[in-house]
Amino acid sequence: MAANSADRPVLEELDHDECLRLIAGGTVGRVAFDDGEGPTVVPVNYVLDGDAVIFRTSVSGRLNRSLLTAVIGGDVRAAFQVDRFDETSHEGWSVLLRGGAHPLSEEEITRVAAVEPWPGGERDAWFRLAATEVSGRRVRRP
After folding, report:
1. How far apart are CA 93 and CA 84, in angstroms?
2. Vertex 60: Cα angle to 59 and 64 (nearest 5)
3. Gene3D superfamilies, per this entry (predicted)?
4. Which has more confidence, 7 or 38?
5. Which end of the chain is more exposed for a tag (fewer CB within 10 A), N or C?
6. CA atoms of 114 and 78, how far apart (whole Å)
7. Is the pLDDT confidence value at 32 over 50?
8. Which domains does the chain have, with CATH numbers?
9. Model confidence band, residue 99 (pLDDT cutoffs 50, 70, 90)
10. Are 139 and 92 in contact (CB under 8 A)?
């Protein structure tokens, strides 16, 4: 028997400020980018810096190679997504930031909050993904 639609969670759009509030306390998100072989997504540790996320990766890694640009001061289009869901209650939220990513200079690194990667190894490539679009949705009980 189908559940009564009044008992089912509802989907709502989140405004810009609520999206940033939700991801501000997080530590793990996913960066989506084109690695030359097509779209791909990798998890990263991050900190929120205004409307941007700061994350680190290995210099020799696919993410670093894909987000580097030959244009000084240029950005590479990318997206960043964080979500939290409770599978028991069928409630949760998802936030998406889309914009340009660029490597941070040594000077910029000294001015941003520290990002502590979970995995071991060198993570000396620092990036900022500056959001030009922030969107999100929440599934909640009425």
Report:
1. 6
2. 60
3. Electron Transport, Fmn-binding Protein, Chain A
4. 38
5. N
6. 21
7. yes
8. 11-140 (2.30.110.10)
9. very high
10. yes
Instruction: Report the candidate in 17, 12, 128 with the shortest Cα–Cα distance to residue 78.
Output: 128
Q: How far apart are CA 46 and CA 127, in angstroms?
A: 10
User: Is there a contact between 14 and 22 (Cβ–Cβ < 8 Å)?
Assistant: yes
pLDDT digits (tens, 9 = 90+) for 38-81: 999 999 999 999 999 999 998 888 888 888 875 667 789 999 99
Q: What single letter denotes the amino acid at residue 138?
A: R
Side chain identity at 140, as an amino acid letter?
R
Residue 46 tokens read as: 């991050």
| Tokens, residue 64 | 């670093």
For residue 115, count other CB atoms closer than 10 A to its CB: 20
